[in-house]
Amino acid sequence: MNDPRLNHLLEFVGIPSVSAQSCHAGDMDRCASWLFQLLKTQGLDARIEKTPGHPVVLARSPRDASKRTILIYGHYDVQPAEPLDQWTSPPFEPEIRDGRVFGRGATDNKGQILAHILGVGEALAANALPVNVVFLIEGEEEVGSPHLAAFLESHREELACDAIAISDTGMAADGHPTLSYALRGIAAMEVRVTGPARDLHSGIYGGAVANPATAAARLIASLHDPDGRVAIPGFYNDVQPMEDWEREAAAASPLKDSDIAAQAGVHELAGEAGYSAVERIGARPTAEVNGLGSGYQGEGTKTVLPAEAFFKLTFRLVANQKPSDILAKARRHLEARCPRGVRLEITEGHSGEAFFLDPRSPDGLAAQAALEEVFGKKPALTREGGSIPILTDLQRILGHPALLLALASPDCRAHAPDENFPVANFLAGIRLNRVLMKNLASISVS
Ligand code: BES
Ligand code: MN
Question: How many angstroms separate the Cα of 281 from the Cα of each of 186, 197, 230, 271, 287?
């Protein structure tokens, strides 16, 4: 493959910009510098901005006061690549196989943001960029964007814009244009369950001393009722129910429950009674265990009564649920059920509210028109299960909801081994940027 555009993507994915792992701090800076250079070669005025965490990369096209300004947000950080032994090719040595670029970050979010950068670069080279563009590319999305809201507040004026576009979500089916009009929010928590002062012989003490692993298992089990509903009191109080048109859009989605089962590699789906899988993922809140540990994990038997156990939880939230309220309710629920003989240490993590954009708004319609023009089909309107924590801050501080134009393939394996981005989606993304900028240039300011 000698397409220079693909070479840019391979280089970008080759930088292990894992925001969560401190051993990659140097790679984060290296990735920001790489982006800065690339943005400059595309004709943009770029800057690396320090934050208390990983740097933000800003870039803008030559400003023309008579044109609308579109802000394009993305992230250059990626999730940890573990478990490494499950990758077909190493995560940071990207490879093209079967028309897909494989590597950590290929889809989430390097391929998608790069498509927009190259689209703008092409337009600038042809002297045909119909809008002003500002790129805001952060390095902490995958750890909950802890410093970006403050950055937005302090750069509010230079980030002023007329619309916001983001490609960081999934297409309903390969080749099927998709506007993601809602994303779930998130609230994270970690629970440490402590018991005896040190690991004990499970024969000498077992039966008389509470086992933290058993206590953790009981607490985790208490989070759901047998119908798959979250059993935390008040958890559903503020949930915005789906409207009829949304249930119709979900039923019409090209993504079927059977596709979801096949992609996930499960023999059957499970979840809250009364909803399809598409609805459960997009429109219903959840409680998930993301990590769980205690006791001996090595070879053979070890008769130990572990001194502690831990579990990591995230709640996915839908419109109107407040992360702080959900975390407080979860804390009360766990503390009230703490088994005798152990103690809980609960730490709250990052959070972000759910996002909702009316796809019938003028910007929403312009985005759909661009998607239809590029892909030749009416776009699917989807509610997505994932989260982009900064979305509601972008809307509050910059005054516009984000247009989420999906480019990820349903089988992109984001966050998992063998993450990949189809070359076709990358090239379509470049075209989409061109058409979107044209369509957003002319609509009335919202
Ligand atoms: N691109 C995803 C968000 C996403 C994934 C939206 C799939 C829609 C469908 C984003 O990079 C992401 O993974 N976000 C994290 C946020 C978290 C770490 C705070 C997520 O959703 O887990
Ligand atoms: Mn992600």
Answer: 13, 41, 14, 9, 12
State which of 325, 351, 377 marks the end of a domain: 351
φ, ψ for residue 3 (rounded to 5)? -65, 120
Residues 177, 396: Cα–Cα separation, whole Å: 27
Same domain, 199 and 176: no
The per-residue DSSP string of 384-414 comes to ESS--TTHHHHHHHHS-PEEEE--B-TT--T
Measured distance CA(7)–CA(207) in Å, rounded: 62
pLDDT digits (tens, 9 = 90+) for 343-392: 999 999 999 999 999 899 998 999 999 999 999 999 999 999 999 999 99
Cβ neighbours of residue 445 closer than 8 Å, sequence gap 6 or more: 68, 162
Q: Are residues 413 and 304 in the same domain?
A: no
Based on the fold, state whether residues 343 and 390 are members of the same structural domain. Answer: no
Do residues 405 and 337 share a domain?
Answer: no
Q: What digits encode the pLDDT tens for the residues 378-426?
A: 999 999 999 999 999 999 999 999 999 999 999 999 999 999 999 999 9
Cα atoms in the Cβ-side hemisphere of radius 13 Å centred on 196: 19
Both 358 and 299 in one domain: the answer is: no
Find the 166 Cα to ligand 1 centroid distance in Å.
12
Residue nearest to atom 19 of ligand 1 (CA): 144
Both 84 and 151 in one domain: the answer is yes
Q: Is residue 39 part of a domain?
A: yes
Residue type present at position 19: S
Is 217 in a helix, a strand, or coil?
helix
Instruction: Enter the pTM of the model.
Output: 0.91
Pocket of ligand 1 (CB under 6 A): 108-109, 141-142, 144, 168-170, 183, 186, 350, 384, 386-389, 414
